[in-house]
Input
Amino acid sequence: MVTRPLVLGAVAYDAKVVTIWEGFRRYFLARDLPFDFVLYSHYERQVEALVGGQIDVAWNSPLAWVRTRRLAPLARAVAMRDTDRDLTSVVVVRADSPVRTPAELAGRAVGTGAVDSPQGTLLPLALLADTPVEVRRFEVGVGLHGDHVGGERDAARALAAGAVEAACMLDANHLLFSKEGTLPPGGTRVVAVTPHFDHCNFSVVADHDALDRFVTLLLAMDYADPATRPLMDLEGLTAWLPGRTDGYDQLEAAVDRFGFYGPAGEVAAAGYRP
Amino acid sequence: MDGHPPGTAEVDLGPLGLDGGGHLLVARALAPLPPGGRLRVTGSDGHLGVHLQAWARRRGHGVEGTTVVRGAADRQRLAGAVRAGEPGAVAGRADATWGLAARGALVEAGAPPLAGADLDERAVVWTELAPKLYAQAAAGQWDPATAIDWDPPALPGEVEAAVVQVMTYLVENEQAALAVPARFLGRIHPHFREVVQFLATQVADEARHVEVFTRRALLCGGELGISGAGGRASLQTLLDEPDWPTASFLLSALGEGTFLSLLSFLERRAPDPVTARIARLALQDEARHVAFAMGHLGEHLRAAPGLRSRLRAAVLRRHDALASTAGLADSVDDALVVLAAGAFTPAAIGAGWRRVRQLEVEMDEARRRRLVRLGFADAEATELSALHTRNFM
Ligand SMILES: [Fe+2]
Ligand SMILES: [Fe+2]
Output
């Protein structure tokens, strides 16, 4: 009997996604794993397809994982990138700002990424949840759960221009914006850092004959192999690791706090139109 | 050594941040550590902790506070890397996976192989003369704006018209001499750097020749001359030749070789100093082009004597293809006579005529000499020289 191909869903947040999954598909097919992929325009559609059984695995954002687990409590995270573990986000002000603590941002404008960005919006804003700040969201790539860096970059630009008092962003993006000059090097100061959190994972809700083989092959992908290294570089990792789910508690709490999803996974955020 | 336990180290960045180049110091300190080795990073930059974990994570290193736990990704990246030959030696065959890398560079595996550079064998493209001839070419580049005194000469109308006709002919030949090496340039594996560099100078030389001959043609304000169909048919057969040694043989050993005689004749017989000067300058360049072709064809023929029959067949094929064409247009032949005569008297024209016939004898002798140097027997050299295109190039 021919095994039904394992079908993976991914969100097309950038044209390179096609290159990546075409390449991974070749990698799996060459190792006798029947494998197909389907691209989605945003994460909500992908999560619904996963829960509805149209795909077997979803390459999920952390927020998509949170919703998947609410819709399907038995969902599992089977693998993730080494670069998906132990991230932080920061709230930064200009170096000469009078603001020294998060509480001093009360009544001031804070720039964030898109409404659905974990690292650019939900997680850093949770640090300020008890402070009445004026949130200024930079909505780039809504529905992509922050995969598009544009919202965070626009918030950084607004900070540099003095249009907001503080801006929220991923640690790596703060480094990137400082190096590329979007933020003046040494011209900003961190006033709050989130605890470590985890990012994307491969989520499954139902079993598939080939799932173990998929995970085994994924974890066997070798950064020393010149045939797969370019794909790993494109996808931004040096090794695949087993999935773990204890790095999402912060985001679960933020989702509840801001009412982004309801307890049963319904989309509840006001004005969120992916 | 530094008082650190084995496999650990420490680096102080002072005030330098990772957004200001600090990662170079961190990477340098990590490099000698084994995977799993620990590097304590200190410094006063306010973003050190935040940036260090972001930088390290992306490169496969772990981070505990401000201690980096060395990963292996940088070593894995170069696991299958090979050297693209040696900087001072030319390989027998250049690998497509070396791509455009400098000769001797450490080539990270994984990029697509170099496409289109099918001329990758030393025996086919290389000559020991290439480095020296390239150096000569680089040193011998001249500026048409300053190397020539462009004062318009005042020649009799018919003599000026003859000069213009010869220039018109030269320009289209120079265009062919530019296009042929240009077409092969991209097909030669860049491992044979000096060959590629030499051909690039050859193309640039021909570009200057096109310029100066055009400029001389227009110098006195007249119209350009005739481009004969037979001449262009002859040049087209050069452009059509897909085989590098054959194209180089037909263009440079035979065609440009014949042009050495022609340009020398123009220098000696020119009725005005501008024509003499530009013929002289082009002649120096052409001598290099011929020397290069003789060099690589000679080495190639020693390695593969069977090539000789291929070259012979190409001359016969070209001759047959051009049998029904006129070869050198009457207009060009006549113009050479008038140019060499310098005046329209019977005595001058008669002298010009004899000089051009003598030129053709010199061309034939020089071609035969080159063919013999390439290992053709005397009789074969005589036969092939006679079959060379009447268009000279
Ligand atoms: Fe030339
Ligand atoms: Fe030439």
In short: Residues 122-387 of chain B form a domain with the Ribonucleotide Reductase, subunit A fold (CATH 1.10.620.20). The longest strand of chain B covers residues 8-12. Residues B 174, 177, 206, 209, 282, 286 surround fe (ii) ion (ligand 1) (CB under 6 Å).
